[in-house]
Specification:
By secondary structure, this protein is α+β, with helices and mostly antiparallel strands. The protein is built from 17 helices and 13 strands. The longest helix has 29 residues. It is globular and about 70 Å long. The N and C termini lie far apart (57 Å).
């Protein structure tokens, strides 16, 4: 039996991160992106430069007035529609640019779009292409395969969880340490205008549209070959300079932030210097942050936790926070920074493997309540091919938080979240179909395949609580013991408990 569901995606007056991501993905799915790209007149009337997978600003504004995406899972077809005014479309497109999801390939330093008829040509960045793939993976959409299998799809953004109510990034000290490790990379990423570009993944996932790890561990599922000859189309000798005004500088996240080999400040020479501008640039491009201020806030954590030491006048004047400017210089702190970073050059003594450890009294609830431990746990589940359990549990938590503060005004948001949960975890053949008790799963499917005006939220909440408890017990019995005894947990724990 085929079930058809139709819903209109709501767009808030103050867009949340998920709104921006969903509207962006729907726009790209609505555009006829091709390797030929759109044409832009330059250097004369008859001269045209084409940028692969580019599109005109005016075309995007028109498409955003009426976008539609159809999701097909098993016998259920869900059609999502969304439309915005010209003013709202321009506002969203500007947000896409600020989030480093698109850039202007003809002028990579451009930061303002102008009006709808300005003739600006836009192109998805490496981060933007990753967002498109993530949307397709989560919703089982097959589209733009040529783009997703190309060198343009090289970024694996670090995923940051958000509070359901405030939409703020969930933070903890352990979270800050883990993110800082990824930020600094496995070794100093020293900028060299004549050096080789960052390496690209040499092998794509076997199933491009099957959900993979979308967490801090996501880059580990791809291999990188230093001798591989592929070069990113985003690579540029000068636009990747840490002080460059280029809107987008990074096309991979695994190498870490670009640093200067040496800088002299007041007659003293420092190695591996990082600018405040580079900190924000890496965070906004290599994570799934949407709003630039979020990058500054997380950068402040690096300073607050004593991971970065200010060395220039302007950074010393504001030593308690990050100064996001090119004149603000920082180095790894002598203790915390080097201990967390674990660069090979950071110590002259050989690093001993962590000693075998036991449970330490860590319970499932402790892991689920701490952003840092939860990310380590997600990495483990990804390797064990059962990450969908944690993802499902997290989505049910979001629903519970929203439901408890629900009103008629935010009912559309709850309905949208329900359909997302169904399409991702419960629909037959869904990207991350859950291995749940048959009777409980059938009950959920029945409740979630109703038309929006027939959805029974109180009953769904009751059944969701049962499902959440079942998944919790499943992770506690099967996944927790393996996680605690894994080498990854032991290494991660030794890094976090400095």
């Amino acid at each position: 039996m085929s079930t058809g569901l139709k819903r209109t995606a709501s767009v808030r007056s103050k867009a949340r991160a998920k709104d921006v991501e969903n509207v962006f993905a729907m726009l790209l799915l609505s555009l006829p992106l091709s390797v030929e790209g759109s044409a832009k007149h330059s250097n004369g009337l008859f001269s045209k430069v084409r940028y692969p997978y580019s599109f005109a600003l005016e075309e995007a504004v028109i498409k955003m007035k009426a976008m539609e995406v159809t999701l097909v899972n098993g016998g259920t077809t869900t059609t999502i529609s969304c439309g915005v005014t010209t003013k709202s479309a321009l506002s969203f497109l500007q947000k896409f640019m600020e989030a480093r999801l698109v850039h202007c390939p003809a002028d990579r330093t451009r930061r303002e779009l102008g009006n709808a008829s300005s003739g600006v040509l836009l192109q998805p960045t490496a981060k933007g292409v990753h967002f498109l793939q993530r949307y397709c993976q989560k919703n089982g959409v097959r589209a733009h395969e040529r783009l997703l299998l190309s060198e343009y799809n090289s970024m694996k953004c670090i995923v940051l969880e958000r509070h359901a109510s405030s939409d703020k990034i969930i933070q903890s000290k352990r979270f800050g340490y883990l993110l800082f490790q990824r930020f600094m990379g496995p070794r100093p990423n020293v900028y060299d205008p004549f050096g080789p570009p960052d390496t690209l993944p040499t092998n794509k996932p076997h199933n491009l549209f099957a959900e993979e790890s979308l967490s801090l561990s996501s880059s580990s599922s791809w291999s990188f070959d230093k001798n591989h000859e592929q070069v990113s189309p985003y690579s540029h000798r000068y636009f990747t300079h840490p002080d460059s005004d280029s809107l987008s500088q990074y096309y991979v996240s695994h190498s870490g932030v670009r640093v200067f080999s040496k800088r002299t400040v007041h007659g003293k020479q420092f190695e591996h210097c990082i600018t405040g501008k580079a900190v924000v640039q890496w965070l906004i491009e290599c994570t799934d942050m949407i709003f630039p201020q979020e990058a500054v806030d997380v950068g402040n954590l690096f300073v607050k936790y004593g991971l970065l030491t200010p060395i220039s006048d302007i950074s010393l004047q504001h030593h308690h926070r990050l100064v996001p400017e090119r004149d603000a210089l920082y180095i790894l702190s002598a203790h915390n920074g080097h201990a967390i970073c674990k660069w090979p050059q950071a110590t002259t003594t050989k690093t001993k493997p962590p000693k075998p450890m036991f449970n330490h009294g860590i319970k499932m609830k402790d892991i689920l309540d701490d952003a840092g431990l939860r990310l380590l746990f997600r990495e483990h589940l990804s390797r064990e091919l059962c990450e969908e359990n944690l993802s499902f549990y997290t989505e049910l938590r979001k629903f519970t938080a929203k439901y408890k503060t629900s009103s008629s005004a935010n009912r559309p948001d709850l309905i949208a979240l329900l359909y997302t949960i169904y399409n991702q975890f419960l629909a037959p053949g869904s990207p991350a179909e859950l291995n749940l008790d048959h009777k409980l799963k059938a009950q959920l499917v029945c409740l979630l395949t109703q038309q929006p005006d027939q959805i029974d939220l109180p009953k769904i909440h009751t059944v969701f609580e049962k499902a959440k408890h079942a998944v919790f017990k499943m992770m506690e019995a099967d996944s927790l013991p393996k996680f605690i005894s894994s080498a990854e947990f032991q290494l991660g724990w030794s890094s976090l408990e400095i």
